[in-house]
């Protein structure tokens, strides 16, 4: 999704505005009440669209509630599929995440925080998020394995490398979401990511020492 919607054709801009209205409205309703008590009818009525239009954009209430997370990882998958993989592979995986974050539209961090808070207190969303994470991980490993066919590392090593990066990402998220609201802008998230990723070599050295 382009950071600047004005770069899109008119029809795509209209679709993007509808999508954004759905996400904003759904998250507001879910936050004010709770995920299970808000109906799909209430969401589409508030945005003044039909259910048919909703299902052209999202597959379910869970899908719209986790839209900020899914937008980020969709951008990540696109980037990792074309990014040069020469040099340090972990660095390429990390850089792809920074690039995906840069591509998010204005206000993404606010929506992401609302979505994450909602998921943390809603078991159905937690399960949906975990399933999505697993699907993304499998796709990333498949993409990397296909692009590195005949080279090392193998599938197991790629999965462990990705899991290490994701662990650092979750550490950065935890630090970011637990900070004061004034420190929850995108720049602060980037700083936490840099700090977490910078700790990975130290962790790798500790593993080597144990062996």
How is this structure best described in words?
This protein is mostly helical. It is built from 11 helices and no strands. The longest helix has 25 residues, at about 125-145. The chain is globular, with a radius of gyration of 19 Å. The termini are far apart. The model has no long low-confidence stretch (mean pLDDT about 90). Pfam families: TetR_N. Keywords: DNA-binding, Transcription, Transcription regulation. This is TetR family transcriptional regulator.
The average pLDDT is 92
What pattern of helices and strands is seen along the backbone? Answer: HHHHHHHHHHH
Structural class: mainly alpha
The total count of strands amounts to 0
Sheet bearing the most strands, described? none
Morphology call: globular
Helix content: over 70%
Low-confidence stretches: none
The CA-CA distance between the termini, in Å, is: 44 Å
Radius of gyration over all CA atoms, rounded: 19 Å
| Number of discrete helical segments | 11
- Beta strand %: under 5%
């Amino acid at each position: 999704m382009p950071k600047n919607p004005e770069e899109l054709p008119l029809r795509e801009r209209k679709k993007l505005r509808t999508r954004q209205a759905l996400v904003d409205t759904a998250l507001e309703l879910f936050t004010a009440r709770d995920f299970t008590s808000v109906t799909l009818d209430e969401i589409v009525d508030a945005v003044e669209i039909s259910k048919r239009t909703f299902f052209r954009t999202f597959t379910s209430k869970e899908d719209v509630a986790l839209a900020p997370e899914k937008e980020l990882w969709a951008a990540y998958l696109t980037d990792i599929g074309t990014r040069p993989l020469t040099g340090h592979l972990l660095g390429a995986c990390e850089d792809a995440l920074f690039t995906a974050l840069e591509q998010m539209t204005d206000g993404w961090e606010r929506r992401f925080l609302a979505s994450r808070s909602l998921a943390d207190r809603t078991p159905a969303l937690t399960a949906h998020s975990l399933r999505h994470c697993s699907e993304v991980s499998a796709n990333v490993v498949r993409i990397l394995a296909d692009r590195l066919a005949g080279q090392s590392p193998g599938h197991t090593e790629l999965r462990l490398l990705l899991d290490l990066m994701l662990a650092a990402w979750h550490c950065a998220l935890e630090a970011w979401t637990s900070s004061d609201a004034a420190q929850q802008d995108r720049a602060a998230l980037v700083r936490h990511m840099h700090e977490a990723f910078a700790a990975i070599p130290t962790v790798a050295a500790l593993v080597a020492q144990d062996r």
